[in-house]
Amino acid sequence: MQIPTPGRQPGLRGRTAAWRSRTLAGAAANAAGHDFRSHLRLGRKGLAIGVDIGGTKVAAGVVDAEGRILSKAKRSTPGNDPRAVEQVIVELVEELGAGHRIWSVGIGAAGWMDLDGATVLFSPHLAWRNEPLRENLQRLLRRPVLLTNDADAAAWAEWRFGAGQGQSRLVCITLGTGIGGAMVMDGRLERGRFGVAGEFGHQIIMPGGHRCECGNRGCWEQYASGNALGREARELAAANSPVAQELLRAVDGDVGRITGVTVTELAEAGDPTSRELIEDVGEWLGLGLANLAAALDPGKFVIGGGLCDAGELLVAPARKAFSRNLTGRGFRPAAEIDLAALGPNAGLIGAADLSRVSSRMHT
Ligand SMILES: [Zn+2]
Question: How many H helices and E strands in the chain?
Fold first, then answer.
């Protein structure tokens, strides 16, 4: 986030004037280092709407100052036409806003946003390329709007209301089809110089390894994601191994239909092979986390995303591999590794809260 500003309630000058106000007092307070949340507008109690734009659906919710969702709505993602996506966002905000007094709107989507939260630089699932989405939406919604990366939004929600509360250095990993990453350091989202930090999934963990859609080989997300789990299971099943009989039965022998979800469900039902496959992914997860700890030294890693349905089956081997590979092990405190607390709503809650408390609200 950019220049921090202290809390300021909409008062006599009205909401718009307060939103445009700017002061550096909060920056000074934060620089003192005593209260890493001093730059947030935590005094602001108004409601915000969070919108989570995924590849297949757009989910939105009214979120209060304690991170509770008061009401929710969703639509299908309308292809990749930017105007159609804007229209869906407007419809959802109008629908949800009818029963509530809404202060601001936060939009979370996969992709890279600029540091001001104004422009989508690139989105992999949607046709946004240097799209001035905030300006477009503020005009349509007549409210302050903030854009944020979906992994950043989820990390923010976990730090404010979930498994990362109270952490001064938090790293969040989202395990889905790939790996999303985000950091909350000293009460701020750490987004790098250009706003694109946190691409942990593309650290090269196996030179010359599996090809990644980013163009490289051997990226972490090719070994420790839901997609990686599905690929390993398909490979095992295609080898006609007798240990893969439950996997094959689950898809009526159609190997191509095996996904990470197939494996997690079978593991839950007790299939030993599926449990082993998840343990393997857990080991890769722990190895990557050890690399991140060497660079970032967080107090805690919070692991979220769909693959977390595997729970301790995934996280226990990750903790073991983390301890085994941590630089300076035995001579340093080690970060905790925990599952996320907010589930699939984290992105929506985080986007809403960021729009409410963030300093990136000035135009
Ligand atoms: Zn990659």
Answer: 11, 13
